[in-house]
Amino acid sequence: MAVAQARHRTLPIVTAMVKQSRDWLGARQRAQIIAASLGFSAQDQTRIATAVSEIARNAFEYASGGKVEFLADPSGPQSLLVRVSDQGPGIADLDLILSGHYRSQHGLGIGITGSRRLMDEFTVDTRLGEGTTVELRKFLPQNAPRITPDVVARTTEALSRRPADPLEEAQHYNQDLLVTLDELSRVNRELQAASEAKDFFLATVSHELRTPMTSILGWLQMLDVPGLDPATQAEGMKAIRNAARLQARLIEDVLDAARIHTGKLEIELAELDLREVVEAVRGSVQPSVVAKSLVLESTNGGGPIPILGDSTRLQQIAWNLISNAVKFTPKNGTITVCLSADAETATLSVSDTGEGITAELLPHVFERFRQGQHSRRHGGLGLGLAIVRHLVELHGGMISAASDGAGKGACFTVRLPLHR
């Protein structure tokens, strides 16, 4: 496999020779210092240092030494380029190693394939009897400072202060390993929590979809009974309609979540008055408000609130927020829907005197699959607010949630750009 030539003008940072075992530890340390100086995150610093040290170790163990060159590439996108070269016997099984099927007693295959996964670009040029050159490239984060000769000079200065004692280098290496283990532990906890949340979600979907279907099938069976009185027939048809609507909403939430996950949820923008959107939703939830003896207060801003949006999706946003307020507000409670606008922003806020949101749940309230105890008791899939947040962001807006805690109500605020 041929090495890709450097695509841009590079600025040399430092070159280090690998002649003894301590030198590949030194290469790791230099990689960590350089990555930190250029603006890489702590995780990327560890990734770069690990990849460089593995390839440098291979050069020492399989080719009796080599050279490690660190270069900064200031051309877009900015990157750190590390070139490790040796004059060893070459790698006879390179294709097998890169395919992931090669195993050696000393870890050559693992070192190459592992390092390859840690970097953004990874190329190998090897010729039997003539040596091997490995190039590793990692792109800087977008918020990193521009690479200039002054930045390279400061990086070189930082390298001059690194400890030369091999014991200190080993201590730094151990510290890096501890940081990596801590990061792996954190990621593992997050993955486990996500897995548990998804398992719970699948169980919830099964239960929530089964509930309206059970009602539909039960009533259909009852309506087959000869001589059923008209009042019971009307009650049955109403129950079937309500159950079908509920099931349709649940399925649509699942489909929207899938569209968001695949990046296929789109909106169709048109000029409209946000007041009309919210008023239509307010009218649709009024029967539920009356049924629970709730007070629904509203203000509409006193004039048109023009925005550029998708009417159907905006109604979905307002419906989710207002229907949630109805769901979580006990009998005789109050819900307030407030519309306002300033020179640049339209604001919709929905507040209630309901069950509130705990401090633990509040930061995660817009995440998929996340539900509090009260939410589970009231049913639902835990997708509504995650979908709402995505729809708001598609409209160029933002949404926030506030609550003083359990039993103290909640307030959701949507801010959208005004269209003039």
Task: Itemize the secondary structure elements and their pairings.
Blueprint: E1 11-18, H1 21-38, H2 42-63, E2 66-73, E3 79-86, H3 94-98, H4 108-118, E4 121-127, E5 131-139, H5 149-160, H6 166-223, H7 230-262, E6 270-273, H8 274-291, E7 295-299, E8 306-309, H9 311-328, E9 334-341, E10 345-352, H10 373-378, H11 384-394, E11 398-402, E12 410-417
Parallel strand pairs: 7-9
Antiparallel strand pairs: 1-2, 2-3, 3-5, 4-5, 6-8, 9-10, 10-12, 11-12
Structure description:
The structure is a single chain. The N terminus is likely disordered. Strand 11 and strand 12 form a beta hairpin. The protein is an alpha+beta fold. 50% of the residues lie in helices and 20% in strands. The chain has 3 domains: 152 residues, Histidine kinase-like ATPase, C-terminal domain (Heat Shock Protein 90, 2-Layer Sandwich), CATH 3.30.565; 72 residues, Orthogonal Bundle (Helix Hairpins), CATH 1.10.287.130; 148 residues, Heat Shock Protein 90, CATH 3.30.565.
